[in-house]
Specification:
By secondary structure, the protein is α+β, with helices and mostly antiparallel strands. It contains 4 helices and 3 strands; from the N terminus they run αββααβα. The chain has a 3-stranded mixed sheet with strand order 1-2-3. The longest helix is centred in the first third of the chain and has 14 residues, at 18-31. It is globular. The N and C termini lie far apart (43 Å).
């Protein structure tokens, strides 16, 4: 198995936070991930420094075999239910099977810049 844990932070942040570590641990344990990236994108939004409110996860697991994309997303959301109910405001999910990941270019698109909410 190959695990990758990457946290995206602003230059002022240097360590993984409690929520990011919780996300990593839960996804690894439940999905037995082949590849995992947990990217804290909170710094891109109007939140306090060091916040853990906006994340992107890239998850590769055999458990996604035969599941439609919406079911993969629901599975990840269910695993992270506690985090989503307690402070995580946004979660972007890239969920692939090992075969899909192997055949991909492994380039994850950057999230768009924050527009301030409500279409501002």
């Amino acid at each position: 198995m190959h695990y990758v844990f990457r946290l995206g932070y602003s230059r002022s942040m240097s360590t993984a936070g409690i929520i990011a570590n919780s996300i990593k641990t839960k996804l690894e344990n439940v999905l037995q991930t082949k590849h995992l990236e947990v990217i804290n994108e909170s710094y891109m939004h109007n939140v306090p420094k060091g916040a853990e409110t906006h994340f992107k996860v890239v998850v590769v697991s055999d458990k996604f075999d035969g599941l439609a994309l919406i079911k993969r997303h629901r599975l990840v959301n269910d695993i992270l239910k506690e985090e989503l109910q307690n402070g995580v405001h946004a979660l972007s999910i890239v969920a692939k099977t090992p075969q899909q990941w192997a055949e991909s270019d492994k380039v994850i698109e950057s999230s768009p810049n924050c527009r301030g909410g409500f279409g501002k």
